[in-house]
Amino acid sequence: MWKEILDKQMIAINPIIKNKNDLFEKMVNHAYAQDYIINRKKFLNALNDREKMSNTELFPGVAFPHARTNAAQKVFVSIIIIKDGLDYQNPDMGNVKLIFFFGCPEEANQEYLRLLAQTTRLVRNKKFRSQLLHAKSPEQVMDFLIAHDQEMNDLKDEDNYLMIFVLNKPDLASDVLAAMVEVGINNASIVDSVSMAKKLAYEIPVFAGLSYIAQGNSKSSSMIFCHIKNSKTPEKLSDILKSNGIDINKKGIGYIQTLKLESLIGETKENIEL
Fold first, then answer.
1. What 3 state SS string does the chain have?
2. 209 and 251 share a domain?
3. Does residue 153 form part of some domain?
4. Which of 148, 171, 194, 213 is least surrounded, with the fewest CB atoms within 10 Å of its CB?
């Protein structure tokens, strides 16, 4: 995905920035000069409106300022590296050093969500953040990102399938959903459930002696249902989860199964307001 999005003209290392407002104005002006934005004022207003909702420094030292507006011509990302840090007006997180600045037209939700999901997964990795902070050129930044890319271009439409993800560790749900977005899934339905083993262990007196099966674990599970178009999607999803430290082949995590659909009536995609 990064191969199609990245533009070395949109990568800056140690630019002269006075403060957060100066950062936003210079980012918008530069994106406008590179023909990614068609209306500077409208885009800057959308960027500031999003920032007023909540500060976009979502990880210590890493910020994701973004705007979804038709003032953007297409989905884009600008990467700014400030090695000495910049006050991003978020005392709990400290100064920001890595800035991923996103723009998205209103109709490009799918591509934008995938890009955002992949970026947030990557920046959780301490080694990856260190590589970016030590980059000496825009070309080197691009190389680092492309090396970590999860290629999805081979996931072409094939058929209609129902994918069922049984997750026995509800605390991993946010990571699982983010990974699903990254492989292009945002139409899932989530059902809270209890596994048979835990039901037996905790609630049925004759089997109470089996409580060791679920010792220390949550009673609850989740079942995630979604429509997919390619039989390789679960494998891609598993690879992304594994890169994030979640190996579904380990006992107790959960499992994925797919069923080929005989028919499909209706539209599976949902409109998501960002």
1. CHHHHCCHHHEEECCCCCCHHHHHHHHHHHHHHCCCECCHHHHHHHHHHHHHHCCCCCECCEECCEEECCCECCCEEEEEEEEEEECCCCCCCCCEEEEEEEEECCCCHHHHHHHHHHHHHHHCCHHHHHHHHCCCCHHHHHHHHHHCCCCCCCCCCCCCEEEEEEECCHHHHHHHHHHHHHCCCCCCEEEEEECHHHHHHHHCHHHHHHHHHHCCCCCEEEEEEEEECCCCHHHHHHHHHHHCCCCCCCCCCEEEEEEECCCCCCCCCCCCCC
2. yes
3. no
4. 171
